[in-house]
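ENTRY TYPE: protein
WANTED: fold as tokens:
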Amino acid sequence: MSTQQQILKFAQKFNIKNTKLIQTGAFINNEWYNNTEEVFSVEDPGTGENVINVTNTPISVIEQGIKDADVAFKKFSKEYSGRQRGRILRKFYDLMMENADDLAIICTVENGKSLADSKGEVGYASSFFEWFAEEAPRIYSDNIPSAAIDKRIITSKQPIGVVGILTPWNFPIAMITRKLGAAFAAGCTTVIKPATETPLSALALAVLAEEAGFPKGALSIFPVDQKRTIEVGKLFCESPIIKKISFTGSTGVGKLLMSQSASTLKKLSFELGGNSPFIVFEDADIDVAVAAAVGCKLRQSGQTCICANRLYIHEAVYDEFASKFTEAVSKLTLGYGLDPNTTHGPLIHERAVEKVEHHIADAIEKGAKVLYGGKRRTDIGPYFHDLTILGDVSQDALVNKEETFGPLAPLIKFSSEEEVMRLANDTEYGLAGYFFSKDYARIFRVGENLHCGMIGANTGALGEASLPFGGIGWSGFGREGSKYGIDDYTVIKSLVIAGI
């Protein structure tokens, strides 16, 4: 079957209106590179079936793309003002809104999440282009008084250069826009390797970038298979042309990329793994806490970096919370992502299902009880697992130490603020944390003492473009979004003027 036949079949099967969004090649220097001889399969995790084949970009082509990005940077950074860059990003935002339904379908097909969840991602993802369109003309610097009367110190923020972006499969649109929006606003050119599981969303963005007016070479996207992913990560890190790496993924891969970048002393920003605590104190509004737990524990079947991983419930409200939480979860619908009745879809692959099963078995062996779910659901598809709640989970269960990244909610009792703070902070990770209390003194006290980069007090919803997104410890460093987001893509230059 030819590439065009594959595209038409995909469009017809999934009712894609703008067929231009379906691409199977690499996007380099505003041109499409297609190689039907070397491809990899994109699978629908809801069925386990191949939906289309995508070009496995050769390393030599990627190397040339990096060189092209360097040539483009020298022109782009000098010829486009912040206001001009902002207009292009605003056009990109408008195009995403116009194509939101198609983008959401593509996301669901390759990722598996429910269509409602994908539509939410498109809105979230596009908001970064809107935000950074407004930030691009406002990259301010300082005039610093010198100790010497006849000197002036003037600073400027300049784009760092070519940026290498490595993104995960769980938010295949938003993890690109959050990085690309800031990099482009700063005046950088970018080369992007999307996750092997979800290249179609990234390639659809490339179509819209060109239409929005991205100059030649400002954006390149290289889809590659799992084996070549390792090579590309190493290439990005060791390339003297690429001046910065922005990576979202596991802590283990982050450590590897950091070591590989040492030879070129790149600027790095890493958003890595999490082990988020979710604390319900005895004075909490239980209904608010339950609704938040459903959202921030089970969103995308638990496959987000800021999902609650450990649910600590005060013993005085444990039974009430467990009962109401179980009732709320029982109303959710597990199924194929494009089914309008589905609220929660499959996991991304077999390894993800196996990890959930392993954590459940370990917790049960250590005394936990299954309050809801607990089983693999092969009756729906190969990678489905019940939304699962475990009660009376031991504090030494594996789920307390490892990020599950799946639909498992472990309920752990605690009796005092001192105890739960010790448990919550007993981890090397520090991405997100959540707690619920009506005591405002406690809100400030716990908020200041939780070892997390982002904390929700009486809310499970953190994500928005204005939030400085990022963690501490093994959860990484750097911030994305917010007024700080551009800083990671700039360098500060100081000019000292004497003889005034």
User: Anything to note?
Assistant: Residues 101 and 119 are 7 Å apart (CA to CA).
